[in-house]
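go over this chain:
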Amino acid sequence: MKKLFLATVVALMSFAASAQVWMGGSIGLDFTKPDFDGAKTLTTFTLAPEVGYTLNDKWDIAIALNESFISYDGDFANSISVEPYARYTFAKAGIASFFVDGGFGVGSTEFDSDGTFLSDSETQFYIGLRPGVKVELSEKVGIVAKLGFLGYQQVVDSYSSFGFNVNNNSLTFGMYWSF
């Protein structure tokens, strides 16, 4: 029994020694002009801090907390979501690593509106994959870019979609620090 316990402790210590915790996230600013007469510009500012754990050279697990501030013609909304995911790194070339994030997100948007934008709250849900690239600037600092989304998205009582989406709204940049 003592040998089994000692072997378990040694295995856990070696696992913990090879793993790294990282934190960081991204900031986004988006201006969208709807394609109809008289449309105003929709402005979205997003803060998305993340914390993750590197399991080995191929796998990471992480969780992101996204908060977006939305403005449209004097109306305002605040959106918040929690997004846990797993990252699989499938290729490396020098300081660049290519990966795909697989995860899901759950969130809510609250509207402060006179009814011209939207007048109540919405609940969002997604599950899918996001490809990306990480460039290691140093042993502790890296930058990340993600483009696209393949999966299912739903805004309760509004719409749902399934497919592959690549546009300026699906491009994100971030920075991470490992310790």
Q: What stands out?
A: The CA atoms of residues 143 and 166 lie 20 Å apart. The longest strand covers residues 75-93.
